[in-house]
Amino acid sequence: MFRTGFIKGNSDLKIDWQDRFAAGKVANALLSFLPMDCSVPIVFICIGTDRSTGDSLGPLVGSLVTEKKLPENFYVFGTLDEPIHAINLTEKLDMIEGRFKDPFIIGIDACLGHSKNVGTIHIKNGPLKPGAGVNKTLPDVGDIHMAGIVNISGFMEYLVLQNTRLHLVMNLAKTMAEGIYKAGLLYHFEEITKRQTLSLNEDTV
């Protein structure tokens, strides 16, 4: 979990989960960042723990996404069954670094922010800084990141996270997971289109 103010990116897209087109907007935003090369591993690292309602957003997203069909080069780490959190984050990052060559990583986490932004999803260039919102020093995660603002920041963050409504966290998680799924569909379609275009070009040579 972190605060939005700790993240510095080149762009900041804010999407309200109640927007009827929220999942599509998440998909389009994600797709705009992804390298369109199926040889590049696209790795989603979903951070959080199910021991705290507010901080369970990441593993909820991971669990929901793993139930969906994704492109073969999409990989998801961090679920309710196998969460990635402060204790094992460094170990998991080392494992991912050893398993994949030059992956494109999307960090996903819960976030505390201004009251007007609670219930919104932020997609930004640059890494997550997990633990910054609760004064923990942890490794940066991701080439880009997605964050769902689950509650207000400012004081007693642990207590705030514990008293966050599961209803909000679940709706944010469902929207983010559906957005990732739709981004995968668009990614797959663009890859097929690119291959067909390349084949046509070669046929005309």
Distance between the termini: 53 Å
Element pattern in H and E:
EEHEHEHEEEHH
The share of residues in extended strands comes to 15-25%
Q: Averaging pLDDT over every residue, what do you get?
A: 87
Shape assignment = globular
> Poorly predicted ranges (pLDDT <50, ≥5 residues)?
2-10, 198-205
Radius of gyration: 17 Å
Major sheet attributes: 7 strands, mixed
Number of helices: 5
**Structure summary, number of beta strands:** 7
The SS-based structural class is alpha/beta
Structure description:
This protein is 38% helix and 20% strand. The chain is built from five helices and seven strands, in the order ββαβαβαβββαα. Strands 1, 2, 3, 4, 5, 6 and 7 form a seven-stranded mixed beta sheet that branches. The longest helix is centred in the last third of the chain and has 38 residues, at 166-203.
Fold blueprint:
Blueprint: E1 2-3, E2 12-16, H1 22-33, E3 42-46, H2 57-66, E4 74-77, H3 89-99, E5 104-113, E6 120-125, E7 144-152, H4 157-162, H5 166-203
Parallel strand pairs: 1-5, 3-4, 3-5, 5-7
Antiparallel strand pairs: 2-6, 6-7
Helix pairs in contact: 1-5, 2-5
Keywords:
7 strands; 5 helices; 38% helix; 7-stranded mixed β-sheet; disordered N terminus; alpha/beta; 205 residues; globular; single chain
